[in-house]
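Input chain follows. Return structure tokens only.
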Amino acid sequence: MDWLTIITTTVHAAIGWESVVYGLAAIGVNIHFGYTGLLNFGQAAFMAVAGYGLAVAVTVLNLPFWMGIVIGLAAAAILALLLGIPTLQLRADYLAIVTIAAAEIVRLVFRSVYFKDIFGGSDGRRGFTGDFYAMNPFPPGHYGIGPFGFDERVIWFLAVGWSVVLLSCLVVYLLMKSPWGRVLKAIREDEDAVRALGKNVFSYKMQSLMLGGIIGCLAGFFYGLYNGAVQPDIFGTEMTFFAYTIVILGGAARVFGPVVGAMIFWVLFVFVGNTLAELVRNGFIPFMTTTQVGPIRYALVGLGFILLLVIRPQGIFGDKREIAINAR
């Protein structure tokens, strides 16, 4: 068995682009679900509008890269307003229904033939990453130790990506230690009591939805920048469910919970998948084919998460009280 390849790919997964992208998406979900108690099942929509905002601005409108970033952030903020205004004054389950439906609507709009000239249809958009990699200060070469290193393109992406992840964690930490953050936690526990104290619960929920959506939309930028393209089917509901799994795995309402959860999530996925593939390839599992490795990997990793939730439902760093949903 090629253990070196398995270990190398596992290490790369721990600090690679997947952990950056899903870490940012999960930080946004953590603000919604962990700190405020909002059931936003449409985080993939925030990622999609940001990624497509950047791609369309650069490739269709011929705008500068930074203008595309601004357009993507503005699109995420507008989406939060459109989702929040009709639902945040209702029970929590209404927000869940609206957001999961909105995410699918956004995906289908980007995929539609009618808007193919703008969004590229099912093929998506590509060719918008040139300006980002043109800013790369790293000269061509290999950075790291042997097989555990990266080329100059990936190391630049990871340097920027992890800097944004750490900055997002710092912003969340400072905000949640402030009076504003304490109001969000109080809303999660008992919004009627917060309303009785004269606080505008709707306004705080809207601010939380916008903040989590904007941080989550950064994941859409980084997905497109690493892969060089955005495609509508990438931003499906499973992306949001992965983000929730990561939040619960790391621990809801913990600043670094989503980051550690994302790293563990992808380490398990890559390690289990590659180990199974090597075992099948070398004949240790004769009743399985390589095409079955993918589904079995999902089943094994899912079973592991189920056992974790049975033993420790609050996640690795979490508290049981943080995952209670006050769904009135």
